[in-house]
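Extended Data, panel c. Modelled sequence:
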Amino acid sequence: MMIWRPLWNRIVSSRVLIVSTIAAIAVWQVAVRIFHIPKFLVPAPSDVVVEFLSNQSWYWNHTYYTLMATLLGFGIAVVFGVMLAIVIVSSRWVEQTIYAGLVAFNSIPKVAIAPLFIIWVGTGFGSKVTMAAVISIFAIVINAVLGLRSIDPDLVDLARSMGAGRQGLLFKIRFPNALPGLFSGMKVGISLALIGTIVGEFVASSSGLGYVIMTAQSTFATPRIFAALVLLAVMGTILFFAIDLLERLILPWHVSNRQPAADNA
């Protein structure tokens, strides 16, 4: 019973979410019909479904483009973010220079620098990947640095007394300790990577869901905008919970993945 209770809690919460979503969609559908709201202002859910079903392959192609740019940019951000976090923790000089510069760079609105990446990288796939990586890397670096530093000094002294060198401390003590923080940064980063991709597609693109939204805006094709937004919401949710599932598989021992004692009673 104790084993199945967490699964049962998730099923119940999912049922509540599904019922609430269906109820909200029903109210939306009825409200649009009763108040005769024009389709170009707020389309009914049925209009959005019809729009999507009439152009399924077209939507899937643009969704695939956005998804690939997001995943590739996020992957680059994770690799370089972890490497940069390790260097920052290992070097005081790097922390005082590059780390401070990274904080200052993060304060710049990313929409403002998107045109620069278009000029430097071009209007193709690379600029979207670059934007996704640049926007998401800060969250990963910050959380990785915090995890690498948040370690019991007594544990470090014990490892050194047993002959652990710098690399041993990093890979056997510091990095495993930093994984919970890293996964927290990755959960934030995957959402930011999707935002970065859309920003790049807004500025200059001929593919992707951001391109779909921008072209639909110019023709007041509101059902098309809503269809693209729904796809983005579904994509972002799946990517987030994919990271969450990966964390549960890799870190089943972490306190955030355990059931409270009251639940196990």
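Residues 1-37 form one domain. This feature is highlighted in the accompanying rendering.
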